């Protein structure tokens, strides 16, 4: 049986062991947690003493921003003249010759000629005159009959050589029909010579190219695009006008001569950097002036950053136990930093070349949602933006 005195001794030993363990625990935990435990009252509730921590309610890595003072960009292009003319050219001329067809006498004639560019060659005509004509004359172009009949006049109308029958290298073949039962006769045509003429288009000035440049910023903000031009021309004397931007067609037709023509087009046709605008006519003369490519830019949006101040923090700011500061850290590039800060509709200006900026904004802080808007006046490289609530030392 355990005696009463011995039980009391055992209890005292147990209490001492527990106290020792608690003391070791307190010594082992971090200092800030130890101070918190020791500063608590007997009831376990926090005392009126306060932490000296500074609280960051906003921290952002802003990066590069810059001012854009334009809402549209106009690219002016110098005036120019387009014209496409045609001139007569002799493709082939021969000396006199004859074709014959008799029982013991046959002679045909081949005439070769070349066309450098069939697309630019129009109104190709074969002209000739004959001194003696008997029988049916046949003329072939590249193997196809283009004329067959008897000539009743010595100088017949010119024979048109159709464009679809023409090639780069061409052959005209002349022959006369046989005599049939009149074997004692000979059919023949005596040519005084022939002439092949054509109208050749001069395309040296039928087109004009202009180059304009577009920045990345313009590309980023384009909302709409258009171009305008004023053509001085005579509608009855001109052909189709084509306008191409970066190899994509913007316009094809007869424009309103003497009036300002305006055409809207997709902004997606504009490239960053170099852009090529090309005008081409198929006929006649155009004087093109007042040429402009215009882009409308989206409204500029300044960066806005939001942060929240809860009721407890706001009370501390309101009673000045905490002061609020806005801080900006710029890249140290020795450049002037100009901007406006809009903090909850309170504006302040920054104009400096130092890399660090700070301003107290305690009276501008509101309970709940707050914002900071940056309005750059120059190109800015901002490393970070902070709003800090700093606890004030007790007097």
What does this structure look like?
The chain is mainly beta and 395 residues long. It has 4 domains: 36 residues; 105 residues, Galactose-binding domain-like (Jelly Rolls, Sandwich), CATH 2.60.120; 118 residues, Jelly Rolls, CATH 2.60.120; 92 residues, Jelly Rolls (Sandwich). Strands 3, 4, 5, 6, 8, 11, 13, 15, 18 and 20 form a 10-stranded antiparallel sheet that branches. Strands 1, 2, 22, 25 and 27 form a 5-stranded antiparallel sheet that branches. A hairpin with a 2-residue loop joins strand 23 and strand 24. It is rod-shaped, with a radius of gyration of 48 Å.
How would you summarize this macromolecular structure in one to three sentences?
The chain has 4 helices and 27 strands.
Largest sheet descriptor: 10 strands, antiparallel
Number of helices in the DSSP assignment:
4
- Low-confidence runs (pLDDT<50, min 5 residues)? 1-5, 39-51
SSE class = mainly beta
């Amino acid at each position: 049986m355990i005696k009463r005195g011995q039980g009391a001794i055992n209890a005292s030993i147990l209490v001492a062991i527990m106290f020792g363990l608690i003391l070791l625990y307190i010594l082992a935990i971090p200092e800030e947690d130890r101070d918190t435990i020791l500063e608590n009252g007997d009831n376990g509730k926090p005392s009126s003493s306060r932490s000296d921590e500074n609280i960051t309610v906003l921290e952002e890595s802003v990066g590069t921003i810059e001012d854009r003072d334009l809402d549209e960009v106009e690219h002016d292009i110098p005036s120019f003249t387009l014209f496409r003319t045609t001139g007569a050219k002799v493709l082939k001329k021969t000396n006199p010759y004859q074709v014959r067809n008799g029982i013991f006498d046959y002679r045909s004639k081949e005439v070769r000629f070349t066309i450098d560019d069939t697309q630019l060659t129009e109104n190709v005509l074969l002209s000739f005159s004959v001194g003696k004509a008997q029988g049916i004359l046949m003329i072939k172009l590249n193997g196809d009959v283009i004329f067959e009949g008897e000539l009743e006049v010595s100088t017949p109308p010119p024979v048109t050589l159709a464009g679809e029958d023409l090639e780069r290298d061409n052959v005209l073949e002349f022959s006369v029909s046989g005599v049939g039962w009149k074997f004692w006769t000979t059919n023949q045509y005596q040519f005084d010579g022939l002439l092949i003429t054509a109208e050749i288009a001069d395309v040296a000035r039928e087109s004009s190219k202009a180059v304009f440049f577009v920045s990345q910023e313009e590309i980023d903000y384009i909302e709409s695009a258009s171009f305008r031009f004023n053509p001085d021309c005579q509608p009855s004397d001109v052909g189709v006008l084509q306008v191409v931007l970066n190899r994509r067609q913007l316009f094809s037709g007869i424009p309103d001569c003497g009036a300002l023509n305006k055409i809207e087009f997709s902004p997606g046709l504009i490239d960053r950097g170099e852009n090529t605008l090309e005008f081409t006519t198929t006929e006649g003369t155009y004087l093109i002036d007042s040429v402009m490519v215009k882009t409308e830019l989206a409204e500029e949006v300044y960066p806005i950053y939001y942060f929240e101040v809860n009721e407890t923090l706001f009370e501390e700011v309101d009673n000045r136990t905490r002061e609020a500061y806005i801080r900006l850290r710029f890249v140290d590039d020795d450049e002037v930093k100009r901007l406006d800060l809009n903090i909850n509709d309170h504006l302040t200006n920054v104009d400096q070349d130092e890399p660090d900026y700070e301003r107290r904004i305690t009276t501008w802080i509101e309970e709940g949602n707050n914002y900071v808007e940056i309005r750059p006046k120059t190109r800015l490289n901002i490393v970070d933006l902070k709003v800090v609530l700093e606890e004030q030392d007790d007097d």
